[in-house]
From TrEMBL:
Stretches assigned to coiled coil: none
UniProt cross-references to Pfam families, sorted A to Z: His_Phos_1 (PF00300)
First and last residue of the signal peptide: none
Residues annotated for substrate binding in this entry: 58
Species whose genome carries this gene: Aureliella helgolandensis
Domain of life: Bacteria
Protein name, entry field: Phosphohistidine phosphatase
InterPro entries listed in its UniProt record: His_Pase_superF_clade-1 (IPR013078), His_PPase_superfam (IPR029033)
PANTHER family found in the cross-reference section: OS09G0287300 PROTEIN
Amino acid sequence: MRTLILMRHAKSDWTQGDRTDHDRPLNPRGRRAAPLMAGQLLSHGISVDIILASSAVRVQQTLELLQESWATETAVSTERDLYLATPAELKQHVDALHDTWQSAMIIGHNPGLSLFASMLCDDDVELPTAAVVILQSAADSWHSSLTQQPWHLVDYWKPRDLEAG
């Protein structure tokens, strides 16, 4: 069984016009949403073996807030090419995962992340900021999860829904 958690970075700050897109930080709403999503993952007993994260500042800040909420250390790989990655590029990253890892998380950007989730589960998945989608495949390897076994959408959480509930 393989579990893939896809998370879009939390809400970023557009008011700092002197920064490049890559260097935009989180805004206050984003700094509240990331720990909320970390708590949601924890409350459902979801853990990950490896986190792949874009090098963008807003992703790194989202990751830091997740890690502050979790009591365990998780392996992290920060990848520059996850910044605005396409579904094909995301697929390559998943295909390259070690088969000893049963669960992986990718923290990245739209539109690629939403398109990748939609492609894997053959459904229309739109990830607003800080949203999390959890996918599972019965495959015994990451490669076969992408080539032979279908992915099933297990959970889909948006911060706005959790705040309202």
